[in-house]
Description:
By secondary structure, the protein is mainly beta. Helices cover 5% and strands 39% of the residues. It has 5 domains: 6-146, no CATH class; 155-310, Jelly Rolls; 313-361, Sandwich (Immunoglobulin-like), CATH 2.60.40; 373-529, no CATH class; 543-609. Strand 39 (484-490) and strand 40 (493-497) form a beta hairpin. The mean pLDDT is 93.
Amino acid sequence: MIKNTVVQRNTVSNCLGSGLHVDHTMVSTGNQIRDNVLFNNKVQLSVSDYSNYNGPGATAPYHVATFNGVYSGNVLYAAGADQLCMKQYSVYSPNAVDYGTFSNNKYFSPYEELSILWFNTNSGVQKLFTLERWQLERSEDAGSTRSPLRSSMYTTLSEISGNLMTSGTFDANVAGWGGWPTNAQVTRDLTYLDNGALKAFLPNNNVYPEFSMRSPDLFSVQNGQWYRMRFSIQSNVHGVVRAGVKGSTQLTSGNTIHERKVPFDGQRRDMEFYFQSTLTDQGMAQFINTYTEPQYWLDNVQVHRVQVQPVVPLQDHVLLVNDQATPQVLSIPTGCWSDVNGVVQGATATIPAFGSKVIYRIVGSGCNVVSQHTVGAKVFLGGALNWGGGVMRSDLRSLGLIPTVEPYTALGLSLENAGATVTSTMLQVTGDQAIVDWVVLELRNADAGYSVAARKAALVKANGEVISTDGTSQVLFSVPTAGKHLVIRHRNHLPAMTAAPLSANAAVVDMTSLNTTLYGIEPLQTESGKRALWPGDVNGNGAIKYTGLVNDRDPVLVAIGSVIPSSTVQGYRAEDINLDGWTKYSGPGNDRDFILYSVGGSVPTTVRLGQLP
């Protein structure tokens, strides 16, 4: 029986099984797994409740819904495509077991992004997750990050053929692309990717639960020859597509020449993988998704016959270990290297006593390659701003109303850091460094539809500085920030977006300054040489309306009870437009006036639209 045990600062590598296995009995409690480095194991971390049936306190049916373990600060580094960062077993119920709090871990799996496996042995159900989907669906791993690399186990020595796909760009149409079942829809769409993309959509399972979509191109594949497949994929939902090549002789069977699971979500993924054909046939590209993950956008599909060379993962991913009782200075291999925190390494690294560090090779010319994707920002919220002093009020903080968990996931936004939290220490700071509220930083691609690349919840201080949940002034994304537009959102203010893409990583966008060029007409409220987001979008539909259908004034009246206009209600509410902690319809400091001011004041039927494409 293990209780109140801390497993900390261990290094485990090169195991054929789990690097660290945490099994539970029904009375396991108070255990912490912290700051361990698990590298190149078949499974870096496995967690189970298998021993419930015969461990201390065993009582049928042996299911414990929640444990209170802590898993924080661990490096889970899968150095091969057949390895997992984490595997969780749930044995005694079809419901998932909550094993505790996971946070600030590193899930590095450069050769296979689907690196988290949940396996319910009771129902036989298995599901693979990206870190982002795991964070969203399980509300876990706040502050955790993944590898910025999407690498392949092979490289191209030479292209033996040209592109075998003649209809994979969708710049004009999606003619010939389709499949079964017949209720699936294949259309050309400009929402994501490049100059038009194919949108695949399976609305339901009325005919069949999976949509097998195939290309009209038939191309020769030869037994024993190597091929490289490339494509771009993106979606507005989380899902997985089975992508590959199917032979003409395999059409009546479930066999394929090659198939690989590829995740999709709001990030753009430019995928590349290799396969060796197992037969000589006429092949076609094939993509399969399910109705529960109904839609994705596809572009830039290519297949080339190539000559390949396998990569040796442990040449590009290295564990530095110090087995001595004093710190040691170890040499870094020749080339350009980064650690898991995105810090580019020099010629040596100091490793603490009995410690270790994982480094990976940065592909590029020289060590000026950017290994972290960050952006800084400054913004004022018009509802809370003291225009004369240029500092926002922090009434929500002083009244204890700011939620410790970001509110935007509940509002329907997909975030890289869903479930992110703010510490009580940060909420105790006063003055111009005080926290005013949660905001969202959104990256948009510089494509025709300004498609969303990533979003992150962050915090804004009274002086307008946007900070990450760990208090740093740069917000880290899993996708490059350079070349993307920055949008700043708030739950009851209109968003604003930079007119030009960010020119470099770690740029700082000051939306309070008149010198920052933004997208659209009057994107911000401007007074006394300062700028702020327009306040009053109570219903979050991207427009501010004082009258008419779906206006923003009526919710304020409803919030206070609809009967006595002078009533007030306290709380963290969208109707509290001036962010003073109180919703007021009339009298001094009321919220209704902010809506009227934002639409222009003199003509209440005017509508102010958020300036986003």
